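User: What would this chain look like folded?
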Amino acid sequence: MKGLISLTLLLALTVFAACDLRSGIAKDEMEKFSGTPTPTRTPAPTEEPVDPADVVKVDTMQPLNIISVSGNQKAQTVNCSKFDTVTINGGKSVVTIKGHCRQVTLNGNDNQLTAEGIMSIVLNGENNSVKYTKYVNGKRPSVTDNGGGNTVEKFTPTTTKK
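Assistant: Here's the prediction, encoded as structure tokens.
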């Protein structure tokens, strides 16, 4: 008799454990994940070809030289004469780079950077503006944006005739 009661309790426990205690909730949740078609990918916009007049040839095998600029609310000019790497630390500064740089790392917020040519840009801050005029060896600069509200754009400087 004890065996029959134990077997009945075991069978009842197995049936109870197999039941979905959440009623229709689990079914509703599963419907969210099944039967939904995969969205189609829109192709990435094709970039305009680089204008040969905007290309500057640079020897990328030059030894690495690091230039550091520090300070807040400053206006500075830096010369990248040997395909240098420039690190800028500060905020609310205006920095002009003459020449062509291997990499520019900007650590800070609300800076304005103008350069002739940059191969790689790293932005570690927010609301920075980077403008460049030339493509180094015909390639657009690679951009790593670790902040928010930053802009990087190519522009054509205006020349005034006298």
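The longest helix spans residues 2-18. If you want, I can go into more detail on any region.
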